[in-house]
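Handout, section B. The chain below has 115 residues.
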Amino acid sequence: QVQLVESGGGLVQPGGSLRLSCAASGIIFSRYAMDWYRQAPGKQRELVATITSDGSTNYADSVKGRFTISRDNAENTVSLQMNSLKPEDTAVYYCSVNRFLRRYWGQGTQVTVSS
């Protein structure tokens, strides 16, 4: 019943920006921390950013200062604003939530940073 649907991925040049969004359903959204992960080919999935139920944020060192996570509890959405994109940011980006010791994932959205 938990569903997470990402949108906003695409192709962008180095130095450009994208904004990813994730729409959540099947949970009392405001009670849960929401996460963005990414996975590049041949690499482990890594945690990119987290936002807690009260709005506190944390970021991977690799994206700190460039990415911003935010949430809109009225709309049950979490977003990831991605600025100053680098080729190494190329990956499939996943929205995720941990509920009752089980992690749920969206379908992923491809972000490609290339000239």
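Note. The chain has a mean pLDDT of 97. Compare this with the example in section A.
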